[in-house]
Amino acid sequence: MRDFSTQSARPDVAREELDFDVLFVGAGPSNLAGLWRLLDLIEAHNQQPGAKKLEGLTIGLIEKGAEIGDHAFSGAVLDPSALNELVPDFMAKGFPSEGEVTSEEVWMFTERSGFQFPVPPPFLQNHGNHVVSLSKMVRWMAAQIEAREVPGVDVMLLPGFAGMKVLWEAGKVVGVQTADKGVNADGTKKSNFEPGNNLKAKVTIFGEGPRGHLSRELDEVLNLQASSKNPQVYEMGVKEVWEVPEGNIEPGFVLHSTGWPLSDGESGGSWVYAMGANRISIGYVVSLDTKDPFVDAHLILQKFKAHPRIAPMLAGGKMVQYGGKALAIGGWYSMPRLAFAGGMLVGDAAQMVNAARLKGIHLGMKGGMCAADTILSALKENDFSDKSLMRYSKSFMNSWAGNELYKARNFHASIEHGLTPGAALNIGFALATSGWVPGDPMKSHKDASTTQTTEAYYNKKGLKRDDLDWGVKFDGQKTFTKLDDVYLSGVMHDEHQPGHLKITKGDHVCVTCWDEKGAPCTIFCPAQVYEMHPDLNGLVKKVDIAFSNCVHCKTCDIKCPEENVIWTPPEGGGGPKYTLC
Length: 581
Ligand code: SF4
Known about the structure:
By secondary structure, this protein is an alpha+beta fold. It contains 17 helices and 23 strands.
């Protein structure tokens, strides 16, 4: 098995063991909804007359960000279905909505104009949904959970702790080991060395988001994709939050577009959402199964802001936050097995995203809630076997969320090469048939496998990205370099720790990739972490990695065409500091 840990195993180090009944890994909306629901269920169960009470329970949640919400990133327009089920009076409880959607536009852009759909396609209709900052939303969820007192249950929310590796016993998941703190770059201990702990649990719920390193370990050991029709696939999204003069954008307005500035054959799209306090969320996603070795969501976003329909909304404004993240878009046919002895997968880690709607928060939350239903039964029966926990999979697949994913099952594969006439026909078929299209199930392709050489894609061997004019000048006012932008992600890592981006096959693989494909990691990374520098003889011999800029988007782990990068967690607490994303 490959090693998904940043740190050495350190068998000599004594580790404290902490026991939980239930352990959630990751403080995204899926896990927080699962924890919230579990508390509701335990409370209701214990109040039933004659029920055998569940008492003395310990439930933990670890999160690699320094604070819950720091690493939460999304567009986002929230479909409130799951939130309504979980907490019907969410607005009365101070839910941080940025406003309900009241007007919307959907466009197919050309460089100077475009075609506006007279009525948004059904899957992009958002009236009544809520614009949110996911970072604010999960902070609110965590605060609500922390304020609760459920008799018989001790809840521990533990930000600043990264899960380093899965703990196994006899083929069963029994928890996670957290990362050591206070380790030098060469692996030696600093004076403030603190060994990671072994957090043991009867059931562990993995909600790490897209391409979690623990989820990868689980898949390698348990072959969780064995029955999946398609591999797990992703888009890469970047986003800026702007503060603009009053009147630039109507409250409740949202816009989606595709077309320009994507190249022919590329799939993706934009969003512009009015937030509260005269802020705008503006972003772009691009599919990572593109053949283009020079795909760069950040550059696409910089170009996009100049479109005549978009530029006036930003006029006179100021960019205040930036971030990037991969998102899972495979959906139904890419989902892994959801449960196994001692563990479950929820949210993006389980591809619970509807690519057609560009939405997954509500699906992930429903996943967490279905997981909680099964956990309650497992706690009552003291049975955390594969068979017991697989009830979660069945209940999710049979829920409205599973039904929604099923209907969108061919969407991503249909638009793999953009909004072509064939793709439009398939979308029409799918709308008429609850998701069936000719060729169902359509095949998706592993993102790392699709990148072509510059010779194949641009018809020029040895071409480098800077050899081409991309039509963007970075002025620091409306258009920003990656380094300007990443400064506003708040990213920070202690530089004196082992690098968390592992080159697994050697630098020579990167050098060949530079020669043949122009080193796509130096282009798609939204934080300019990877650079290829010639030595004194003009030869490029290795890739330089400025890991302290990494915003944990996971794109390099997904899209490196040589599969030469593994993203592993840095010391807990490092990474971006999102407050508006
Ligand atoms: Fe994303 Fe990788 Fe760049 Fe980090 S180094 S920001 S995970 S592409």
